[in-house]
Amino acid sequence: MIVPDFISPIVGYRVWHWDAGGLRSLNGEPWLPGQPMEARCKVSGDGTLVGRIVKPAHGDHHAPQADCTCGIYAAKSIGHLRNTGYARFGITGEVCLWGVVVEHEQGWRAQLAYPKTLVLPLVTLPVSTSLLESRLQTLTAFNCDILVAGREGNVPLWSKGRGYNVAGLDMIVQRYKGWYAVRRQERQVKRGDRVAVLDRGIAVVEHVDAKQVHAVLWNNTVMRIGRKEIVWDGGNARWEAKLSAVFQRASLATSFVSHFRVPSPSPTERPRLVGV
Ligand SMILES: [Zn+2]
Questions:
Q1: 95 C-alpha to center of ligand 1: Å?
Q2: How far is the CA of 60 from the centre of ligand 1 (A)?
Q3: 10-residue mean pLDDT series, the chain (276 residues)
Q4: 179 & 95 share domain
């Protein structure tokens, strides 16, 4: 069924990719701020939206056509997008559809479209806060409402005419705080980590306390190194320490080492290391 030239737009639901270049259809077609997306069929020559002819009975045509697959797609419900699995590919939202619109059971194919509301999952945010502002500008440029998808519902992030909303910004800030906490955790030296002691080789961390790290070299030498003297080397993905930072060393007898390396059920049962 073709319903020509809607005066009031239909509102459907879509999924977009969102990257540094802005919003894109899942097939990579860019959506530009301030101008409607207009469907073109491949059959029309230089069109950008690819259509596949179901019945190859016509030549060039304006998109969409009932017997083609061209047009800008939108679902009738957000539930349908989720059920089909498309929603996990990016940011979802409402989209205004107008011009020629072909209706299907679950959705529409439209001639013209423009985002109405964008719902941003936190996982789509850039990892670096230095990129956040410019990335969000690629969305606010559309001048439509932007929300953050939260566990208990969507929270306004940016509204046309009102700008940023504190509640949405707070959700984003909390998200970044969580990431930093995880990163700090990952960057704390722990048992089993490798420490490159310059001029001595790789030592494996056996024990960490508040001030010191005890690490064992390949020749069973136990080293005590101040925690602050151990620095993370991102390029080598290992901890590094200068030999001058090692202030006590002890060679362990083989039997002691083998006992020492058996995982203990509790830290209190672990043998104490005694320096010489
Ligand atoms: Zn077509």
A1: 21
A2: 8
A3: 63 92 89 94 55 52 87 93 81 94 93 96 84 91 95 92 92 84 76 85 88 85 88 77 77 41 41 38
A4: yes
**Residues 6+ away with beta carbon under 8 Å from 271:** 256, 259, 260
How far does the centroid of ligand 1 lie from the alpha carbon of residue 53, in Å?
Answer: 6
Cα-to-centroid distance, 110 and ligand 1 (Å): 11
User: Among residues 210, 196, 209, 206, which one has the least CA distance to residue 246?
Assistant: 196
Taking the centre of ligand 1 as the mean of its atom positions, its distance from the CA of residue 137, in whole angstroms, is 33
Ligand 1 midpoint to CA 39 (Å): 9
CB 33 within 8 A of CB 141: yes
Distance 44 CA to ligand 1 centre (A): 8
Q: Which residue type occupies 245? A: A
94 part of a folded domain: yes
Same domain, 25 and 121: yes
Domain final position from 151, 184, 217? 184
Residue range(s) defining the domain that contains residue 95? 2-184
86, 211: one domain: no
Same domain, 114 and 249: no
The pLDDT assigned to 56 comes to: 43
Residue 254: per-residue pLDDT: 40
